Amino acid sequence: DLESHLQRCQQLSVTVLTDHQDLNNTELKTILNSTAPQQYRIRAKLRTYKPQKLYQSIKLHCPKCNSLREVPDGGDFDFILQGSAVTAPNPELHNTSWYDSVMWTTQDQKQRKIAIHFVKHDEMLQQPEDTLLMIEGGTLKEVWKLTKRFKCVIPVRSTEHDLELLDLSAPFLLQGNIKYYGCKQCSTPKPIKNLSSIAAEQRPSWEPTEIAQVLGIEPLQYVFIMKFTLVDGTGAINAYLFDY
């Protein structure tokens, strides 16, 4: 389990330097028998590395609770969207003081009801490239179409009294081709109407960090993780690469 390996690595870490000619080479056996923290220069061969496929190195990391999770694939997101589409949009939540709503029924067999809520600024709609919108009942394909045209897209569903975010297994925000996720443990989702405070700003920029803050989301960060096993004939040591 990569996460427990990483935690153990942090506890037993030795700083291994691959430069610094002023240090003599130290055998791995010596390093393994010494207590951290120390500085060493080693000469070793790469025996194995994980993961084998580069895309598997990308994980989601919570800086608050230090948890790691896999990046969900499109199928997971599509499944959540389909589940939320079972509940029809609530017309009573349409056309408020801070967003305009459009609703239609698809022409296919399922006849899904889709609602899109365009957030206003100074009672006016912004240019598409500056607009944040919320979508209910859309498919993955429809959501991606919207992200190509509008600045920010937030998938939501209706409750009796308010719009709310989907399960945090889904992204809480899409911007271009980037999906932003929140930590399930550290987030306390707040009502969607909190977004109206950003819409009221002089120039709403719809920055992901600001959106996350007003919605009570602890955003996850994309990190790059690899594990290398190094050998020199006297022992083997694991080296971890962890970077944003």
UniProtKB/TrEMBL annotation:
It comes from the Eukaryota. GO terms for cellular component: nuclear telomere cap complex. Residues 76-219 form the Protection of telomeres protein 1 C-terminal insertion domain. GO terms for molecular function: G-rich strand telomeric DNA binding; telomerase inhibitor activity. GO terms for biological process: regulation of telomere maintenance via telomerase; telomere capping. Pfam families: POT1_C_insert (PF21375). InterPro entries: POT1, POT1_C_insert. This is POTE1 protein. The gene is Pot1.
